[in-house]
Each structure stands twice: as structure tokens, then as C-alpha cells.
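Memo to structure team: turn this sequence into C-alpha cells by end of day. - J.P.
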Amino acid sequence: MRMLKIKNIAVVLAILAVGYLSGYQSAKTQNTVTAEKTGKLDLNMMWVVKDKLEQMYLDPKKIENKSMVYGAISGLVQSLGDPYTVYLPPADNERSNEDLNGEFGGVGISLGFKDRNLAVVAPMANSPAMRAGLKAGDLILKIIDKENKVDRDTVGIGLEEAVNLIRGKIGTEVTLKMFREGDVEPFEVKLIRDNIVVPSLELKWVGESENVAWIQLNKFSERIFEEWPTMVEQINAKKNLGGMVLDLRNNPGGYLEASVVVASDLLEKGIVVKQADNKGEKVYEVDKSAGRLTKPKLTILVNGGSASASEILAGALKYYKRGKLVGEKTFGKGTVQQPQDFSDGSGLHVTVAKWLLPDGKNIHGVGVDPDVVVKYEKPDVPDVKVQPELSWKDDNQLIRAIEELAK
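Reply from structure team:
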């Protein structure tokens, strides 16, 4: 039976190009738009301003009632000051829903916020962003798209607006003005938009004997519910299994329930995550009927692009000492958004709760620290447009994770 899903916005939609950071409550509902008044709201000034615009604005043809309504609702939601609580007009909402299908058009970036600044949560593998050298934590200061006459500073920008400006037709160019911690000056990167296809997970056999399961969990999308059980069978069928490396690097989140499914195969029992809202706490526990991968040795790879549901999973595995976390501190996205679709095609993502690790720790803005700190060292490869495919031996963090299995 299909579980209700909680969509993680590391909003990490993964700008996949953009997508954005996902952390959602998945009891997704469909609401009919009505004109029924549900609260006391004095909207007189709104009508006064609308009348003045119609009387005075230079180009009255640009005054479109539906756009004004969507703009007014967006402003109402933005007044909360929460970058993850957003109202999406129909076109934006459609793009948001595409995120969990695992295929996007854009530059391959998961977006989030660092201290209210638009930031790269994670560049996607083999994407224009990855090839350009963008890193988790890089700040995006400006979006420039000459063809579409876009020159937008990102101060106060909403997540959806950023997604819409960076996405575009395959083959077209967008320029991002960036700032990286430790640098003195900002820098610009020109990116050619591409089709981005994101598998939920990939399994590769690594190690000198090629008997270590390298599980790359890219995102907790809808596909996990079908792909994960198949992968578990493949691992259990392996003779002389030398352990598992669960790779959560640059995983921006997705369905919380998908991370619980994974945790239920790796842990024998216990609380995976607590969800605290304005009515109390809800607990998500391990499904004791699973537990198909509790015996093999395990290490977990994390970095600054691990966000939302991937942080929840990593934090739970660390808490129960199931395996050592190797790599770098995670992003720190610990709030829950519940998406609602309306009958006109628009949608609303509302922050409804925060996530707590089994020990009650809130990771929002804090992240999860690795047990073994290993900074990623970029391999020395030729500076060419089409990068050669790298071996697992070129990944210093993965090598360390494999070494930890032997201890």
C-alpha cells in the first residue's frame, strides 16, 4: 500500500535545473478555489492601489487581473518571511511537481538558502553546474539571461522565481554571478542549459575485490519505492559482500517516507525521525518487517549538499551507531513543507513542522557532523568540455569510506 508522502523542500525542488531543496510533508491535497471569506482581512487598500494602477500606469495592457491575483496571494504568503513557504501560480506549480519525476531541463543545481541568501545546495553529477565547478554553499548573487532580458539580483528572491529564471530551453545560456566563502571577489559562470535526468539511486561495485556495494542515493523521489527493493535483492545476492557505502552526498531530499523505507532496511528498530508541529510530535519508526540489510558493515558519505531527508537518514544512522559518517557537515535543512494543489493548477507549500533526530536534536541551520572529516579533493583531470568518466579510485572520500569498512 502506498504511503502518504512528505516531500522534503531541501525545498532541495533540486534546481535541477533547476530544482530546489526538498523537504515535504506529503499528505498532498486538492482544494477547490472558492471566494468564501475565511478570515477578517481588510483588502480595501488593495482595491485602491489597483484602481490607481488602472488610471495611471504607463502601459495599461500589462494590467492583467489573474496575474494581479496570483501576485497578491504570493505577497500574502511571502509576508511570513519563510523562504520555504511559497505560493505557486499554475506554471510554477507544474514545474514543482515535475521535480520528483526525476527529469528536468536546466543547469543541474539544487537550491536552498544560507542565512537567507540564495545558495547552491548541490550541483548534480555530469550537469552543466558540476562541469563549471560550482560547489555546495556557493552563493548566487545575480541571474543574467540576455536572451530573455533577465538581469536579477537575488536579494529577497523567492525560491520559485529563482528556479524559473535559471531554467530555460535546452541549449540556451544563463550567467550566474557567484560568491564562494574564502574568496575576495565574486565570479561569473556561463552555463548552457541541458536536459537533466536524475536516477533516484545507482549501485556500483567498488573496492579492490569489487565486492563493496556503493549505493548512490541521489534523491528520495517517487522512484525509490520501486527501485530500492530491487537494489536490496542485488546486494543480498552478492557473494562475499565486503560491506556497503551509502552515498548521500549532494542528495537534496525528497519524500521523507522514502528515507524511512531505506532506514527500515538498515536498522533493526528504533525511531528514525520525530516531526514536531504546533500540535505536538509525530514519530516515524523503523518498519520491523523490513531489516534486509542490517548485517553488512556500513559507512555513510555526506557533504554540504546532503540536505533534508538525507540528513534525517544520516543522523538516524549515526545516532544508532549503524555506521560511521564520512565526509563533511551536511546542509542543515530541518523543516517540513506540505504541498497543496488547487483546482486552478496553482499550489501552496506550507512549512508545517520541523524534523528532530531520534535524540530530539533539530538540524535546521546546524546540519549533521561527520564522524570522520574528509574534505573532497578534486581529481586532476584535463580542462576539457567533456570530462572523462572518473573511477572510484579518483574519489578520496569514497576511498576513506571503504577503508573504514575494514576497521
